UniProtKB/TrEMBL annotation, chains A, B:
Cofactor: Zn(2+)
Name of encoding gene: zur
N-terminal signal peptide: none
GO CC entries: cytosol
Name listed for the protein in its UniProt record: Zinc uptake regulation protein
GO biological process, one term: negative regulation of DNA-templated transcription
Keywords: DNA-binding, Metal-binding, Repressor, Transcription, Transcription regulation, Zinc
Gene Ontology MF annotations: DNA-binding transcription factor activity; transcription cis-regulatory region binding; zinc ion binding
InterPro entries from the UniProt entry: FUR, Fur_C, WH-like_DNA-bd_sf, WH_DNA-bd_sf
Cofactor note as given: Binds 1 zinc ion per subunit.
Family from the record: Belongs to the Fur family.
Positions bound to Zn(2+): 88, 91, 128, 131
Length: 136, 136
DNA sequence: GGAAGTGGCGTTATATTATTACATACTTTC
DNA sequence: GAAAGTATGTAATAATATAACGCCACTTCC
């Protein structure tokens, strides 16, 4: 478990985090940029810089297999372990969960290998329950 | 466990697979393109099309967190389960392994959720044993 | 044999994602 | 208030990936 300080956000960081929270799902950096143009955003770097910090603070996760970003689903982004994501390829819905037992096993593997673990990516692609039961 | 047929490769597929095998580590699509220019490759699509097939055949894995590709490390790419990767951020070395117990736990989660799993990405970022013991 | 389908290939152009480089401003610290 | 650190704005560009088109080789089915 890693405790994340809950720092004061700068204006840009707050705007980016707000759009991700409001979206309720993953957004690409350029989608965020378009949403924030009316707030004065002009360039990708404004988004990427804010995202870097938000990811560092643990408030936003990067979805590697989508090249997109999503607000952490934990209330207040309180301290929690490594997250995993189930991504529905039909509706785009993303479920975040915390597979502690899986993380434990992976840590055991890294320790046996002498590998110093910095960051873990676990992403499941497939079809969510709703999309299976309600085929379009 | 999924059995992958070991199909005849086309000329382009064989060239792309050859560069990945020779490299012994991950390459980006554009790095492959540059390696294969002397073999007549001119455009990214030639690489991406071959990679798509090789990934489909299970002979090449895509590393989502690197936007790169790596030849499967299993001998002859025989049938095997979902792979995981430990990526050294210092030397770039990638270790492929097959964490069956982890996959089993993740499958249990998906079944409990009614999520139909199509593809699993597990990537560990950190520092390998050699780079820890021989700091530059 | 020929029509129709399939898959691979080559090429150009373009879309999407991310970073480099440089200048400016604000804030904290001493 | 000078120095150091952090955030910002902007333009330009790099890196990654796909769309659209036409061509050719092969099959298969009548």
């Amino acid at each position: 478990m890693i405790a994340h300080a809950q720092p004061e956000l700068t204006k840009n960081q707050a705007l980016v985090f707000g759009s991700l929270s409001d979206a309720g799902g993953p957004l690409t950096a350029y989608a965020i940029l378009d949403l924030l143009r009316e707030n004065g955003f002009r360039a990708p770097l404004q988004v990427y810089r804010a995202l870097d910090k938000l990811v560092e603070y643990g408030m936003v996760h990067r979805l590697e297999s989508l090249n997109a970003f999503v607000a952490c689903s934990h209330k207040g982004c309180a301290e929690h372990g490594t997250a995993a994501f189930a991504i529905c390829e039909n509706c785009g819905d993303v479920s975040e969960f915390t597979p502690d037992e899986v993380i434990k096993l992976l840590k055991e593997w890294t320790q046996a290998e002498g590998f110093t673990l910095a960051r873990t990516t676990i992403e499941l692609r497939g079809t969510c329950r709703d999309c299976i039961s309600q085929p379009n």
